[in-house]
Write a structure and sequence with these properties.
Helices cover about 40% and strands about 15% of the residues. With about 325 residues, it is an alpha/beta fold. The strands form two sheets. It has a seven-stranded parallel beta sheet, with helices on both faces. A two-stranded antiparallel ribbon has the order 7-9. Helix 8 packs parallel to helix 10 and helix 10 packs across helix 11. The chain is globular. The two termini are about 25 Å apart. About 5% of the residues have low confidence.
Length: about 325
């Protein structure tokens, strides 16, 4: 039986007819929500910036010990030469890892950690150019915030369409509920997200929208509204994260005070299925759950592995005859 939603694996196979895997890169960017000492940020962010697991060598001992990681201290001043050297090393490590583990036949370059358009245009061009020189890559993927998409950034990214088969931008919407965005300190609006998606599409750049389930003031009405906004933006893809409470975050305090809970396996399956039924069937589903390392996670301390979770979503939808977009 075929999957009841449009999976990322199927999309890549149909598009490239070979195994394509991302090389996640930390370009040593920062975020407009954090100051130079690393303070601030969204209520759920622990300051690690979502870097690829195989690039997190500083966490290896904590991962083995099972302790929860506490992140403090400022953001170090790092020169361009160091950034370029770091990117080159990460790409080589990433290629070796995905080829050995997944038998990758082609690669996408993925600027993953922090806000990857939060720098001067001159610096962005140097970093993107240098990274792409370690190709070939079939895609350039840049993760960022809606409020860090400018006309200059869009123009720069559009220029790379001649270097790769597809340029993507991952936009962190998280929720289409403005009250929720304000409460968790996102510091951007839903209207800003819609404008960013529109400007990217006008230049032929694909948009993948990040959404998060379990944030304050959220429920089924909120998830339905978020699906409608993602559809309105004509987002080409979506990534869904279940809320994880991380150490040394504002949300950790909320959780310890009893003001916040995280979803059980059954509840997140239900949330995902509900959202998918309102999501346009053309939207590629790149992710359905978050995979934060256990040593950074306060809650939930235990959760199903990825394959078990995906099987439950598929089984639930197939059992009822539900499909992605059948309620749109």
């Amino acid at each position: 039986m075929s999957l009841p939603y449009r999976s990322y694996t199927r999309h890549l196979q149909e598009t490239y007819h070979m195994k394509v895997y991302r090389i996640g890169v930390d370009g040593l960017f920062s975020c407009p929500n954090r100051d130079r000492q690393g303070r601030g940020g969204c209520a759920f962010c622990d300051g690690k910036g979502g870097s690829a697991v195989y690039q997190r060598f500083d966490e290896a001992l904590l991962a083995k010990s099972g302790n929860v990681l506490s992140l403090e201290g400022g953001v170090p001043e790092i020169g361009m030469e160091q950034r370029l050297d770091s990117i080159a090393n990460q790409i080589e490590r990433g290629k070796l890892f995905v080829k050995r583990r997944y038998q990758a036949q082609a690669y996408s370059l993925y600027f993953q950690a922090y806000t990857n358009t939060y720098d001067t245009i001159e610096h962005l061009k140097i970093l993107y150019d240098a990274a792409l020189a370690h190709g070939p890559f079939v895609e350039l993927i840049v993760s960022t915030r809606p409020d860090c998409i400018t006309d200059e950034v869009v123009s720069l990214l559009a220029g790379y369409r001649s270097c790769v088969q597809q340029v993507w931008v991952e936009l962190g919407l998280e929720s289409a509920n403005q009250q929720t965005l304000d409460f968790v300190g996102r510091n951007h609006s839903v209207a800003c997200y819609l404008a960013a998606a529109d400007s990217l599409h006008l230049q032929g750049i694909g948009v993948c929208t990040h959404v998060m389930f379990g944030l304050p003031y959220e429920g089924r009405d909120g998830y339905r509204n978020t699906a409608h906004v993602v559809n309105q933006a004509n987002s080409d893809a979506v990534k869904i994260h279940n809320l994880h409470v991380l150490s040394a975050t504002v949300m950790e305090n909320w959780y310890l005070q009893g003001e916040l809970s995280t979803a059980s396996l059954a509840r997140h399956v239900d949330q995902c299925v509900f959202f998918l039924r309102y999501l346009d069937p053309s939207v590629v589903v790149e992710r359905l759950m978050c995979e934060t390392p256990n040593h950074r996670r306060v809650a939930p301390r235990r959760f199903a592995d990825k394959q078990q979770f995906l099987q439950l979503v598929e089984q639930t939808m197939n059992r009822h005859g539900w499909l992605q977009g059948d309620l749109t």
